[in-house]
């Protein structure tokens, strides 16, 4: 486990996501859904769309490129059983969001 501080909780509006670079060239999409935080690999496994820019609704993020939906808690794709995105554990300490990258 290697939790690193990625953001502060007030940097991500409720029911939205943001993209953070966690190491050179490696990006994580961090989401605030109903006050709970989730982290997925930012790169959509379909064709590489930026998941951190997608709409967050009903426990899923919709990829902004073609609309495939991914479960925030598991990374599983709702539209295709073949697709899954890496999911990372998240810890909130005080106002800091730490992600196990
Ligand atoms: S690139 Fe994400 S759905 Fe196509």
Description of the molecule:
With 101 residues, the protein is mostly beta strands. The protein has one domain (3-100): Rieske [2Fe-2S] iron-sulphur domain (Rieske Iron-sulfur Protein). The chain has no helices and ten strands. The strands form three sheets. It has a four-stranded antiparallel beta sheet with strand order 2-3-4-8, with no helix packed on it. It has a three-stranded antiparallel beta sheet with strand order 1-10-9, with no helix packed on it. The model has no long low-confidence stretch (mean pLDDT 97). The protein binds FE2/S2 (inorganic) cluster. Residues 44, 46-49, 63, 65-66, 68 line the site of FE2/S2 (inorganic) cluster. FE2/S2 (inorganic) cluster binds at residues 44, 46-49, 63, 65-66, 68.
Layout of SSEs?
Blueprint: E1 3-8, E2 16-23, E3 26-33, E4 36-41, E5 55-57, E6 60-62, E7 69-71, E8 87-88, E9 90-93, E10 96-100
Antiparallel strand pairs: 1-10, 2-3, 3-4, 4-8, 5-6, 6-7, 9-10
Short description:
Helices cover 0% and strands 48% of the residues. It is mostly beta strands and 101 residues long. A hairpin with a 6-residue loop joins β6 and β7.
Keywords:
four-stranded antiparallel beta sheet, mainly beta, binds FE2/S2 (inorganic) cluster
In which order are the strands of the major sheet placed? Answer: 2-3-4-8
CATH topology: Rieske Iron-sulfur Protein
Largest beta sheet, briefly?
Answer: 4 strands, antiparallel
CATH class: Mainly Beta
In whole angstroms, the N-to-C terminal distance is 8 Å
Number of strands: 10
Beta content comes to over 45%
Tell me which CATH architecture applies here.
3-layer Sandwich
* SSE run: EEEEEEEEEE
Sum up the overall morphology in one term: globular
Give helix % range: under 10%
Question: How many H/I helices?
Answer: 0
Unique bound compounds: FE2/S2 (inorganic) cluster
Q: Could you state the oligomeric state of the chains shown? A: single chain
Please state the CA-atom Rg, rounded to the nearest Å: 12 Å
